[in-house]
């Protein structure tokens, strides 16, 4: 007798969704329609035409869904910083990296707006975001530490990582308040203002 799979069959007429982006998009639509708390993992896997085991290959929890391909983006950001010429001033290198990290194709922008509205306003996700922000800050502090030749847990790398996170979030808040705004332009303006607070690559 053939072994019966514990994975439910995909819904007729729909190809199973088996990527971070696809699952995240499906979940975001459901979160907007039903609310984050009211949407379960079972609801999401049914809509995606996959099983729970497949879901957990891509996301550790429902809280991670709005973050999409965050882990991949973090890895790219670290690689981007590593490849930046050493002669580029520290704050300019960080600015370029953050802008690249937050660059998305036009078709992804509506999803990204939904994603960030959830992350910045839903209490459950606000709490969960501290873990994700820590990963982001670690990339920044490690790079700053390598440029300054000091340990990443020293004041300078940590202060700059926190400062950059705050500036980035402020740009996002402005972006979400104005539908016709451009995220890249807001980030550039915010980082240009921040750069006046640093002298020779060290906090003033």
Estimated share of beta-strand residues: under 5%
* CATH-defined architecture of the largest domain: Orthogonal Bundle
Kindly report the oligomeric state of this protein.
single chain
Query: Biggest β-sheet, characterized?
Result: 2 strands, antiparallel
Number of strands: 2
- Structural class of the secondary structure composition? mainly alpha
Question: What percent of the residues sit in helical stretches (DSSP H or I)?
Answer: 55-70%
Give the overall form: globular
Looking at CATH, the homologous superfamily of the largest domain is: Tetracycline Repressor, domain 2
Query: Can you tell me the number of structural domains?
Result: 2
CATH class of the largest domain: Mainly Alpha
Number of helices in the DSSP assignment:
9
According to CATH, the fold-level topology of the largest domain is: Tetracycline Repressor, domain 2
What is the end-to-end distance?
Answer: 73 Å
pLDDT below 50 for ≥5 consecutive residues: which ranges? 1-14, 199-204
Q: Largest sheet, order of strands side by side? A: 1-2
> What is the radius of gyration?
20 Å
Give an account of the 3D structure.
This protein has 204 residues and is mainly α. It has two domains: 1-62, Homeodomain-like (Arc Repressor Mutant, subunit A, Orthogonal Bundle); 69-203, Tetracycline Repressor, domain 2 (Orthogonal Bundle). 64% of the residues lie in helices and 2% in strands. It has helices spanning 20-34, 41-48, 52-58, 70-83, 90-101, 109-121, 123-148, 155-177, 183-195, and strands at 198-199, 202-203. It has a two-stranded antiparallel ribbon. Strand 1 (198-199) and strand 2 (202-203) form a beta hairpin. Helix 4 (70-83) runs antiparallel to helix 5 (90-101), helix 4 (70-83) packs parallel to helix 7 and helix 8 (155-177) runs antiparallel to helix 9. Mean pLDDT is 87; it is low at 1-14 and 199-204.
